[in-house]
Structure formats: structure tokens, C-alpha cells
Amino acid sequence: MHVFIYDSREAAGKAAAEQASHVIRAAIDHKGEAVIILATGTSQFDTLSALISFPGIDWGRVAMFHLDEYIGLEPDHPASFRRYLTERFLSGAGNLKAVNFIHGEAEDPASECRRIGALISSHVVDIALVGIGENGHLAFNDPPADFETQRPFIVVELDEVCRRQQLGEGWFAALEDVPRHAISMSIQQIMKSRNIIASVPESRKAPAVKKALEGPVTPDCPSSILQRHPRCMVFLDTASASLLKGRYHGGN
Which phi and psi (to 5°) does residue 58 adopt? Predict the structure, then answer.
């Protein structure tokens, strides 16, 4: 794991996007296409904005999956991750080779897990762009996370800390509006990605960042599993890195 700390969230997001753009272009040059996984949430604002601004990426050769989606939410809901990615990524990137969304409104979530799981199992993922939740979650794998399942996508129950984070970020008007269940990419599926880039700004993430980067690898802090990935890069701002004790790369 390589950790980079920048003076601002904007600088950290741009640096994460620049690294991601290198990986995507290299994959296209090597095999004619790139397969990417995208996260959502406020932590990804700067990263995705910068990523679609970089020149030289042939988005028509890129296939996209996303990490998670609420169960029971229609795609046009303000908190829908499909709407988020449509507005904040696809509108700028243009037509991709493939857009593989999770259908959170599906009548049978287990069947939807199998459908999207079969799709991603037929690909080698070149890069996953992820975040770290206030409770240490990775995707919607809240603690204690399932580190063992080999199913690519699973139905999960969201804990209160996670649901309050979604409320605090302004996606919902009240806690009771936040869904209690979601479809999430599993820990093992995320770890299969050739490269992982984590963008984690803001002081509210500092306790989770410390546990994830400097604590033990444990299901009680799901994102701590990133310590075991051979090609994981974490991009922080000074606020999210404020509790770290180790020496890390400084940004500029």
C-alpha cells in the first residue's frame, strides 16, 4: 500500500484521478479495453471530476461497474448511485463500451446479485476507485464485514453509522428515509482488481483512515483489507490524515 497526503481535497482528488488515468490508458494500450469500478459519495467528487477532464482516454473502450446500490431506490432518486454516476461521470465521459449498473429496484435482490455477479466474473478488472466510510466500510460492507465470501455481489444490511453518514452528506432528508439494505460488491471481488485507488478526504474520515491504514486487518474495519492488496494507492488530504503516525508520501 502506498499512501499520499495532499494539502487539499481537490489536490488529492486530482492526483488520484491522474494515477487512475495512467492505469486506464495503459490497459487500453495493452489489451484494447479497460474495465473499471467506480465508487460514489462526496469523497469521489474531486476524483471523478478530474478523471473525465484528462485528455487521451478513449472512453469508448472502457467498461464500467459500480460498487453498490440501495435496495428499493429508483434510478432517478436523488440518492441513487446510478443517478450520481450518470450526472457526475457519464455526462462527461460520454459513451462507454459498457455501463453495468446494479438494479437496486429489482424485485429479487438475490437474483440481481447473481446477474451482475455473472457479468463482472467474465472480466478482469483493471482498476477500482473506492472510498472508506466513517465506520471503515469498503463499498457497503459494513463491520463486521464478510472477508470470505467469493460471491461477487451480496445483499447487505446497513448499520446506523453508515446510514447516518448518508444523512449527514445530504443525500436524504431524514434517517428513516435511508434504506436499510443494499447490494454491495463483496470484499473478495474488490480485492481481485489489479489496481485499487482509494480517495478519502475530510476530517470526519480521520479515525477510519487511521484504523484502516495503521490498525490490524480485521472485519471490524473492513477497509483494513486494503493493506493486503499489492497495488493499492490511498490519496488523503491533511484533514483525513491528521491522526496518522507513520511516515507517508507528501503531495505537492
Answer: -85, 90
Q: Report in angstroms the alpha-carbon separations of 126 from 33, 50, 242.
A: 9, 19, 31
DSSP string of 61-127, one letter each residue: GEEEEESEEETT--TTSTT-HHHHHIIIIIHHH---SEEE---TT-S-HHHHHHHHHHHHHTS---E
Q: pTM for this one? A: 0.94
Query: Along the chain (252 residues), what's the average pLDDT of each consecutive run of 10 residues?
Result: 95 97 97 96 93 94 96 91 95 95 95 97 97 95 96 95 87 89 97 98 96 97 97 97 82 56
Cell numbers that stand for 50 in this block: 478530474
* Domains of the chain with bracketed CATH: 2-194+218-234 (3.40.50.1360)
Pair 41, 131: CB distance under 8 Å: yes
175: cell is 434517517
